[in-house]
Design brief:
Strand order of the largest sheet: 1-2-3-4-6-5
Radius of gyration: 20 Å
Largest sheet: 6 strands, antiparallel
Helix content: 25-40%
Shape: globular
Number of strands: 11
């Protein structure tokens, strides 16, 4: 039997999502009358300040506006927990109908354009210093459509605002490590899309990636090891 919650910030009751075996999916709900949206509910924690929520939204907007990477329409609402009076963070996200990159069949133009924009995102973030999205990996993306779309595109569907700060002036700063390990995610995304196109390597993209890595100087020993490993993979 579906669990239905009322008394949330939404007009519609929320219905807990269940798998085929009838087990529930933790923290995920459907608005009863709006199945084209998903709602994720998490307890309000000290680290989830309003400033951090706004920063996450700003970074997602930048990713779509400046780098043409699809981000579902979404909003964040603060309200009561469905079952008691604890505070909770509700993230309402437009549903994307699609498949993971590992299962997708993406045309070459779309795939190479996507990889080029994502590489530009990391390159620009390194040049600029400051905040960046810190959890971009293949399983966070879907290839598909949102309601009303006529053409498929690649969407970042995990819109948990996970971000860190890059400080090149401090090689040992912990946020720098997140930046470089995220470059593994970029490499795995490129590899996944190469396989989905079944047309060989994206040679130009890989060359640009190598050039970017070779331009980086003055990093910690650990981050240099990440760069060296990526250069071997590429």
């Amino acid at each position: 039997m579906n669990e239905i919650y009322i008394g949330t910030p939404f007009k519609d009751p929320l219905v807990r999502i269940r798998r085929e075996d009838n087990s529930s999916i933790s923290h995920l709900y459907l608005p009863k009358e709006r199945p084209n949206y998903l709602v994720r509910v998490l307890p309000w924690c000290g680290f989830q300040t309003l400033e951090k929520i706004e920063m996450g939204k700003s970074l997602f907007t930048e990713l779509e506006r400046n780098y043409n990477i699809g981000v579902p329409r979404h909003d964040v609402i603060i309200g009561p927990w469905p079952r008691d009076d604890r505070g909770a963070v509700y993230t309402a996200v437009e549903r994307i109908e699609g498949v993971r990159l590992s299962e997708a069949r993406v045309d070459n133009k779309t795939a190479e354009s996507f990889c080029s924009f994502l590489l530009a995102y990391f390159s620009d973030k390194y040049e600029a210093n400051g905040y960046f999205l810190a959890d971009l990996h293949p399983f966070q993306f879907l290839y598909g459509t949102r309601k009303g779309d006529a053409q498929k595109r690649i969407f970042l569907v995990d819109i948990d605002p996970s971000f860190e700060e890059l400080k090149k002036e401090d090689p040992e700063y912990i946020g720098n490590g997140y930046f470089f390990t995220n470059l593994y995610g970029l490499y795995y995304i490129i590899s996944a899309l190469e396989k989905s196109c079944n047309s060989g390597r994206f040679t130009k993209i890989r060359r640009k990636f190598i050039s970017f890595l070779n331009s980086i100087e003055g990093v910690s020993k650990e981050n240099q090891e990440v760069i060296d490993e990526l250069l071997k993979l590429l």
